[in-house]
Amino acid sequence: MRKTNRFVALLMALILVFSSAMSTAVFAEVNEDVVGTSFEATVGKLKAVGIMQGYPDGTFKPEGEITRAEFAKIAVTALGLADAAEISRGTTRFPDVYLNHWATGFINVAVNRGLIVGYPDGTFRPEGKLTNAEAVTILVRLVGLGPVVDKQGTWPANYIGAASNEGILKGVNVASSTNALRGLTAEMLMNTLTVQKWGATGYDNDGSVSYGKLWDGETPASKLTLLNDNLGINEIEGRLMAIDDEEVTIGNTDYDYVGAAADEAWLFLNMVDAWQNEDDEIIYVVATSKQFFDAIEVDADAEELTLVEADKDYDIASNVVVYIDGEREARADLEDNDYDYAKVVLNDDGDVVAISAYLWDDTLIVEETSGFDVIGFGGDELDVEDFAIVKAGKTISLDDLDEGDILYFNESAEYAVVYNRSVTGEIGRIFTTRIVVNGEDYEFSANFRYLDKDGDLVALDSDGAEQFKDADEDVTIFLNHAGDPVFITGDLGIAPTSSLYAYVTDVYTYAAARTGESMRGIDVVNQNGAKVSYDLKAADLDDGDNDLYAGDAADFDAQVKADLIIKLEIKEDATLKSVEVVDFGTTVTAGGATDPVKVSARFVGAYRLLSSAIIFDISEGTDADDIEVLVLKDADFDELLDADYYVNDKDEIVAIIVSDSDRESDVTEFTAIATKNAFELVGEDTWRLELIVDGKAKANYFTKADANIANASAVTAGQYLLVDINDSTNEITKVTVLLGTRVANGVVETRTTATSVIKLEANPVEFKLETGNVVDKTDSYKLKAIRDIAVGDTVDIIRVEDGSRFADYVVRTAKVGVTPVSSATYGLTNVANTITVEIVDEPAGTYVVRIGELAKTVVDTDQVIVGTDAPFDSIAPGTIVTANLYNLNDMTTVLATVTFVVTN
């Protein structure tokens, strides 16, 4: 009785109060105007089961009011009777509900079920606004309490009291006589779905019906609710361990799911509440645990961690789940380590139960995006095609990146985070090792950078800080999660570049009209498309104290010529400060003098192709009026057929003279690895190659008759190839087997995960993996990460071009310490360049000895002489080689292996 009286008092005060909870949904599209609000999870769940869908324009309108007809539909759908409503469409008992009204079926079912009634004048008023008292009444009747409550007290106090006792009023603050709002009504409805249903449980001696709470009749502890009994939804709780395109793993169980793509960044490692439909499909998931995103420091025993920015300490649970750079690790791996960024999940006791931590390779200040590339200020580029990009714990798209965003990334883990924490103020004192802004010290470091006057991203030092201070304006310093400065910007820091690339149209010598001085004239078209002439005094060129030109007048005359690219530095008064001849003004091609270069290529020869490279298109002529200037990423053609490439001191192509291009080509060249032997499709005159292309496994089909793919039928598992693939049809149009110096082979001496660099024994080159493509031949060509490669493993390095230190793939061909398969049956030895093959109890088949991509077939115990037998005679003395033995029918399994140095 006290509870009833208490809620009658609340009714008299016209206030219904309850608490709220915050969560974030990821399955099923959530209406755009509730994302990030307290209604998000509730609206998402109701939409997932089809009870409240929102409006055609994608909104939910949580502050909007609800009509009586709309709520009739909501109530009937919550009972699982939407199909019955469709059958019941037609005439109603209410004269103001017209025959063709959209809600006739729902009104009929709602009235027949006793959920809603009309007014004393016989009308229903379908477009009338629902009051909160009416909404509560209908919700109480939905759970079967109507017959009980109707005998208790007066309306609406009796219904409000019952709703409170059952938990329906949990999370709302409204006046009972005012009109119901959609968002708050959704909260009440969500509570109603999980309230235990009431119903007839028997008859009393006087013939009256007894009512009570309903159970499923099979498991006494299992209550019946609208959610599980009427809608067939099963609630699952647990820790979310994985998400892919078709499954979600909660705890140790995999479930199929349907609905919108899951936000793995937000849900991963969280405790979740999942809804499963009658088809055993997950239709909605919401995170229920508390999580933080911060830099972390872990103590020596991995018993406690500190959130660096939040400056809070938390105990680490003994059963903590640990991921480092995207890979599952042991708790001990955390000991005494610091991480640049981590997702930290707490349990109900406030202890850390899950950690996903990352170390950043580098930072990029976003200037723009192009395709899958993020282009940073200073010319840095990052291919994020397969990256998860996260901001405030949520996954964002490439289109969500804004100019000036600070992007922290780990290439091997394919993970990046946007974090724009900053401080703004005047620079105070400047020291040799730090600056002071707003009274705080910020240390100089290689990672604390700014844009200099040339537009290059360089480390801040005291000289750079003085330039900002001289501007007498505020600066903004961006900080990482650990509070360390990574970027400073201000008037000087973002000033337009004063350096320009220019195409020289003419160079000439003349005498000044008034003084007779020897002069040099330069006519150029600069990277802005402007035609400009500059006059230089020969005496200035010979002046060793000025920086106008690195050499003297004779050097200038010999090197600065028409039809070349030069770099100009312009003073504030638009006069010329310096002239620099850009290196490597020669044609560089990907595989021969006639090979075209794709605009989308990442490398030309051994050099990185920047999408920000300036193109001077002279295909229409070399007169200034004929030259078109554009940026590579904006090019309206696909291939460069004849071009000269200009390279900076970082081996990056920064400018291009294009003499000919192909604006109609739709073929892209890829480096690929064959995972099976080629085979012909019967009766279709078509061969199929199963390849790893661009780091993804796929099967490609093409026509055998094409002369460009004559090599296709001979492709065997394990070969490295160049393939041209039609962008539209996905058919291969050309196959080339990679040989020579494109492939480096050896034993791993060192490997650095953070920078994706591998060093091989007896090889001076440090190979840089640009793509993240790591393939394991010893494990059925599975795709791996750079961290999976161990020191002592034998690998093939597939370079982007002959002689380049940049690599497309790292391929493991043998694991360190692993005994070759069937070593007791197969033997491979080398003495003085003579490889001896031993096959004991020889199984049927032909065998192959392979060194890199060179192979020789053997039928029985045989000898293969390196240096004299083709095709091995091309291997130079002093080369470290690994010979592997295969069965021709299974080119994925290494039967035996031997590594040696080729001698004279």
Main features:
904 residues, mainly beta, 7-stranded mixed beta sheet, 6-stranded mixed beta sheet, 14 helices, 12% helix, 39% strand, disordered N terminus
Describe the model:
There is one protein chain. The protein is mainly beta. Helices cover 12% and strands 39% of the residues. The strands form 13 sheets. It has a 7-stranded mixed sheet. Strands 35, 36, 37, 38, 39 and 40 form a 6-stranded mixed sheet that branches. Strands 41, 42, 43, 44, 45 and 46 form a 6-stranded antiparallel sheet that branches. The N and C termini lie far apart (103 Å). Residues 1-28, 493-497, 586-593 and 820-824 have low confidence and may be disordered.
Short description:
The chain has 904 residues and is mainly beta.
**Which secondary-structure class do the elements indicate?**
mainly beta
Q: First CA to last CA: what distance?
A: 103 Å
Tell me the β content.
35-45%
Radius of gyration, whole Å: 36 Å
Count of helical regions: 14
Major sheet attributes: 7 strands, mixed
Biggest sheet strand line-up:
17-16-15-20-21-18-19
Gross geometry: globular
Number of strands: 59
Determine the mean pLDDT: 82
User: In percent, how helical is the residue content?
Assistant: 10-25%
Q: Tell me the quaternary state.
A: single chain
Spans of at least 5 consecutive residues with low confidence: 1-28, 493-497, 586-593, 820-824
